[in-house]
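Recall the central idea of this unit: under ordinary conditions, the amino acid sequence of a chain determines the structure it adopts. In this exercise we apply that idea directly, starting from the sequence alone.
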Amino acid sequence: MTARVDVGQRERAGASLREIAALFLKLGTTAFGGPAAHIAMMEEEVVRRRGWLTHEEFLDYLGATNLIPGPNSTELAIHVGQKMGGWAGLIVAGACFILPAAVIVSVIAWAYVRFGTLPQMAGVLAGIKPVVIAIVMQAMWNLGRRALKSPWLAVLGAGSLAAAALGVNELVVLAAAGVLAATRVAAPRANARFAGVIVAGVASPTTVGLWPLFLVFAKIGAVLFGSGYVLIAFIRADLVERLHWLTDQQLIDAIAVGQVTPGPVFTTATFVGYVLAGGGGAVAATIGIFLPAFVFVALSGPLVPRLRRSRVAGAVLDGVNVASLALMTLAAAQIGRAAINSWVSIAILVGSAVILLRTKINSAWLVGVGAVIGLL
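Accordingly, the structure predicted from this sequence is:
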């Protein structure tokens, strides 16, 4: 049994790359349940068991991940790696946390492409999809209670939802919400004027090549704030609506696989990449979606103490969070139409939602139950 470390008595100056790799390979293989569960497991390992960080340092890094785009739990792993092992630790921690999930998802994607038309696979996915919608609904509920801190933010969120429903580019929605929220804090007595936002997008290719696939997911990884579930909105906007590379059915399948596997939810991109372009596509999509996180952590790490004390940075985050919630709400409603199509799927959805809201059950168990029901 591993002895717990009294952090008040000892601070760890560093850790070997082997120790960092071993820890994050373990977490990447066993961390089911989404970002909140991942973060809780990291706190247990790096603060209470190993004493690599104090509680205060851990909270500082956790706060910093909320101020930059990308997958929060992965960015927290990268922060810990950088703190304990420098630049090499940054790369090792992030890669080892991502790699197990990427490999598992790639294997499932191969099976999906090879056997996805079999009735057995179709039944399993049909049972999982309503559970996934319920998990997204739970995430929206939990995020909404934290994000809608004031009537002003509620109005901003409603406006973002309306703009997204009318077809406004999701990057413009996020940027506008962030700027309006920051302007309100920086100049509370002035009239906020928002002239416009220029967003550089990725041109729509005519075929699914590795480079265009990388660029699409790199763009998403560079601008996606909020929960990993907001990824649904971005993938749907780019790959379903604009580029027509995926169907809503394939998107909900990808999300289901992301739920049933450990590690970052962003490995949904790995599944999509494999479905679109095989093994090379899985690699391109995975590197694209995660690369910005490494860059942002490397740049923001030294600024952590100042970022978390900034009123303007906090206001931008508030605005972006409510806009992200609006995008997620719209995407969940749209993909729900593809997943909820029978009384059985409705029963699974309602039952899963009630269980998730009333208990602290790991969502992976519900996904498993849904798969069994679908198979039967």
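The CA atoms of residues 151 and 269 lie 35 Å apart.
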